[in-house]
Amino acid sequence: MSGVGFFRGTSADQDTRFSNKKAKLLKSHKFAPELDHLVNMGKVNMDVIKPWITRRVTELLGFEDEVLINFIHGLLDVKDVNGKEVQIQITGFMEKNTGKFMKELWTLLLSAQKNASGVPRQFLDAKAEEIRKKKVEDDRITSKIQRKKDKEGRENMQEGLKKLDGGFDMNHTDTSSNLTLKPSDTGDFLRDGKETDMRNGDGARNRTPHSPAVLTLPHR
């Protein structure tokens, strides 16, 4: 009975067979220094970490392995996570890419638990840089549009001035031609587009047009 009770109350951590195996695995693997620290997952915003895990695993394997991705999510779904144990668990799936992936993942998790938002500083900096670049691009486009408008405005103004100059020259020429004295068909003169009748002068009032000259002889 004592033997039955022993096995009933023994956990994997208490069983020396499992503890020895874990110790051997820990010694046989190389771990990044970041994995020496536990991560409090209660302080990590997994909504921003999960998309990164999916993208990075897909990049390293060359295809999207949903089974492995969900498995990693499950390993992180505890309060305090030991990175070394996680690496041992996923080595069979990621093989040579395991160390690189775990170093990058743990760097993000350690940073995330230090921020009140639970978001890694790297993500915040990347977002800030994205916003800055977008603003620079928006300013460039706005400046380009404004320069185009200014150029069109100058061209329209120059075109308008040319039209005004052309109209002024034409009017000036017409006015000048109207000031020229031109003989009319009746022998009078035109000035400023108006006919000036010489018969309306003082001399014209003293003689009758078309009257023959009369020679008056003295009476004897």
Question: Helix and strand layout, with pairings?
Answer:
Blueprint: H1 2-8, H2 16-28, E1 39-40, H3 46-61, H4 66-75, E2 80-81, H5 83-94, H6 98-112, H7 121-178, E3 182-183, E4 189-191, E5 194-196, H8 202-205
Antiparallel strand pairs: 1-2, 3-4, 4-5
Helix pairs in contact: 3-4, 3-6, 5-6
Quick summary:
The chain is built from 8 helices and 5 strands, in the order ααβααβαααβββα. It is mostly helical and 220 residues long. The longest helix is centred in the last third of the chain and has 58 residues, at 121-178.
Describe the protein's architecture and organization.
The protein is mainly α and 220 residues long. The protein is 61% helix and 5% strand. It is built from 8 helices and 5 strands, in the order ααβααβαααβββα. The chain has helices spanning 2-8, 16-28, 46-61, 66-75, 83-94, 98-112, 121-178, 202-205; strands spanning 39-40, 80-81, 182-183, 189-191, 194-196. The strands form 2 sheets. Strands 3-4-5 form a 3-stranded antiparallel sheet, with no helix packed on it. The longest helix is centred in the last third of the chain and has 58 residues, at 121-178.
List keywords for this structure.
single chain; disordered N terminus; 220 residues; two-stranded antiparallel ribbon; mainly alpha
Q: Structural class, judged by helices and strands?
A: mainly alpha
Global outline? elongated
Describe the sheet with the most strands.
Answer: 3 strands, antiparallel
Number of E strands: 5
Distance between the termini: 195 Å
Number of helices: 8
Structural Rg = 52 Å
Low-confidence stretches: 1-7, 192-196, 211-215
Fraction of residues in helix? 55-70%
**What portion of residues belong to β-strands?**
5-15%
**Strand numbers in spatial order across the main sheet:** 3-4-5
Order of helices and strands: HHEHHEHHHEEEH
Mean pLDDT: 77
